[in-house]
Amino acid sequence: MSLLDDMKGKAEELIAGNSDAVRDGIGKVGDFIDDKTGGKYAGQVDGAQQAASDYVDGVGRTGGAAPQEPSAPAEA
Asked: Which parts of this chain are annotated as the region Disordered (predicted)?
């Protein structure tokens, strides 16, 4: 198992046990970025937040294994 696979597995374990907190953090990070950039990249930030939340949801549904294809961020 490569280091990247090991890190991915540990991240998925963390997400599976704390999906609500991770989703909350995703929202806070997006709000922080929007605040610091004056909303200039709001579309890209929203797309990244959605993709990250979808990934967290996928990990939660599969009990620790990430979905095969996380959704791509929306183009703005």
From this structure: 57-76
